[in-house]
Amino acid sequence: MAICGQPAFVDTRTDTVTNPILVIEVLSKSTSDYDRGQKFEAYRAIPTLKEYLTAAQDRPMLSTG
């Protein structure tokens, strides 16, 4: 994840950032469908997000969403 400026957090949590400009997701066979589906849809709702990059765990391949 990359952020421009200061990180904005959810409530008092410091492990959930709400203002990323870039998210990079490493896909595994067991989570690939979820990561490219429901999780990506949730990321698309983040107004600051500019790029979503997925990396295959088992082969040298990257793709943007």
Brief description of this entry?
The chain contains 1 helix and 4 strands. A 4-stranded mixed β-sheet has the order 1-2-3-4, with helices on one face.
Essential attributes:
4-stranded mixed sheet, 65 residues, alpha+beta, 20% helix, 29% strand
Topology overview:
Layout: E1 2-3, E2 20-27, H1 32-44, E3 51-56, E4 62-64
Parallel strand pairs: 2-3
Antiparallel strand pairs: 1-2, 3-4
How would you characterize the overall build of this protein?
There is one protein chain. This protein has 65 residues and is an alpha+beta fold. It has one helix at 32-44; strands at residues 2-3, 20-27, 51-56, 62-64. The protein has a four-stranded mixed sheet with strand order 1-2-3-4, covered by helices on one side. It starts with a strand and ends with a strand. The mean pLDDT is 89.
Rg, nearest Å: 13 Å
Q: What portion of the residues fall into strands of 2 or more residues?
A: 25-35%
Q: Secondary-structure element order, as H and E?
A: EEHEE
Distance between the amino and carboxyl termini = 14 Å
Helix fraction bin: 10-25%
Major sheet summary line: 4 strands, mixed
Mean pLDDT: 89
How are the strands of the biggest sheet laid out side by side?
1-2-3-4
Tell the overall outline. Answer: elongated
**Strand tally, please?**
4
Uncertain segments of ≥5 residues (pLDDT<50)?
none
Number of helices: 1
Helix and strand content put the structural class at: alpha+beta
